[in-house]
Write a structure and sequence with these properties.
Number of helices of chain A: 7
Structural class of chain A: alpha/beta
CATH architecture of the largest domain in chain A: 3-Layer(aba) Sandwich
CATH topology of the largest domain in chain A: Rossmann fold
Largest sheet of chain A: 6 strands, mixed
Number of domains of chain A: 2
Strand order of the largest sheet of chain A: 6-5-9-10-11-12
Oligomer: homodimer
Shape of chain A: globular
Number of strands of chain A: 12
């Protein structure tokens, strides 16, 4: 039974959104709807235009027998800026202030709608770059890594400070915790990352950059390649950071435990 | 400028998929597309039918001035069974066998396409039930909790064995680790769960059920309510489990370290 255009458009939209960064042949869609390839091509043009106009991302058409369509999720810079501005306001409330000048983020890092937005923003930053894996450190980096991984369609790997038996053999590296200057250890399951993988590092919060620097060492240990570093929030840090090439969505400019004020501004992600 | 039906269908599909469990008024869509409410109603009927036919979930129309549409993601039982069967095969490979009879799962729990499916399957299990929060324990439960949270549009909270300063004040409970019979401690940030919340507990792996039972105590400690427990995989356990009312996607029936064989079958989720 032939499927009407309206139904095809709805199903193809869902299919593409659910399969980012995957090449889907027109033949696949033609069979799925028992429709001519020419009709599918027209559908794709309509979807392509709407996705572009609405800022969902880019649909690329690859011609030829081995061709098809690839959907790459993205977000408009203007929309991303609004989201980040709203986040700045939500973070700049005094009840988020914790002893030691830390900022309470756990509630935000558990909200699916926010994570979807953060994932799209970070993924858009690496548009057009090949990424084989997203790396983070347990526990609070995991939601960010998973959110980004959804939009890049690349697996995420979790480095741990306390590896469990359920990880199998691990590789460990030592690193200097930037803020406390202590030597710490982190571990990653040996089979979780292939040699030569191109890795994006993400984390929830960065002060001195010691943890992120530890992940850089880990990537070297696996003969893998660092593509970039993006953190959800960076703190104002007086010393010299262990890493200098990174992007942040938010910048915690000032934390004053005496007056109980926090000031959060956009990070360096949009220059 | 009026928007054509094809474009409306594509945008509404994306909007609904991205906003599960949220009531969206027809007026919102009518304004968004500068179209008559009657046209929007027709669009909704088409989308509703396609979502149903394709097994994406249910679109409910609520009449009246305060009405609108709500999309509830779901998955067909037949489709879910196929996914679980495939998972059984992927897990029943001898290179997953770890010392002590544990099974290596970390790679699967980092794959976005798989997590999307698992999230949909678990969310479908609680169709029609009010869930305010998804609870899990760090670290390996987090990907499952986040995946489910996306489809329920409810936040997830992470119980930790080692709470950090960045959590603020915490509530802690002691629990008996089922397999080792040791007394352990778990903590949850005080502000992460509201009194009276209806909580779904998820985890990656269950043996004796001690950890899950600890989360049950935690829920009581917060004067919250347990809605259900679902684990990704349960192990064949000889003793008496600490919890008896749970569902599992997978059942690790047999692990033989001598012959290096693992046998994984579907869990009890479909009875």
């Amino acid at each position: 039974m032939k499927i009407r255009r309206s139904e095809r458009l709805i199903d193809m939209t869902q299919y593409l959104l659910d399969s980012p960064h995957q090449l889907i042949s027109l033949t696949f869609f033609a069979k799925r709807y028992d429709s001519a390839k020419s009709s599918i091509s027209e559908d794709i043009s309509i979807i392509k235009k709407t996705f572009k106009d609405r800022g969902f991302g880019i649909i690329q058409t690859i011609p030829g027998a081995t061709g098809g369509v690839i959907f790459t999720p993205a977000i408009d810079e203007a929309e991303a800026k609004v989201i980040i501005q709203q986040l700045c306001q939500r973070l700049s409330t005094q009840d988020r202030l914790l002893p030691g000048g830390y900022v309470y983020l756990s509630d935000l890092l558990g909200q699916p709608d926010l994570l979807r937005k953060v994932g799209r923003i970070i993924a858009s930053k690496y548009l057009g770059q090949k990424i084989d894996a997203v790396m983070t450190v347990a526990t609070k980096g995991v939601p960010i890594a998973q959110a980004v991984s959804y939009y890049l369609n690349a697996p995420f790997v979790i480095v741990r400070r306390d590896s469990k038996i359920t990880e199998g053999s691990t590789v460990s590296v030592n690193y200097v915790s930037g803020s406390s200057e202590r030597i710490e250890k982190m571990e990653l399951s040996k089979r979780s990352l292939k040699r030569g993988s191109r890795v994006l590092v993400v984390d929830d919060f960065m002060k001195g950059g010691g943890t992120v620097n530890g992940m850089k060492s880990m990537i070297e240990e696996f003969d893998a390649e660092l593509v970039g570093i993006t953190v959800f929030a960076e703190a104002n840090f007086k010393g010299v950071r262990a890493v200098d090439d990174y992007t942040s969505l938010l910048y915690v400019e000032q934390v004053d435990t005496a007056t109980k004020t926090i000031s959060v501004v956009p990070g360096n992600i949009f220059g």
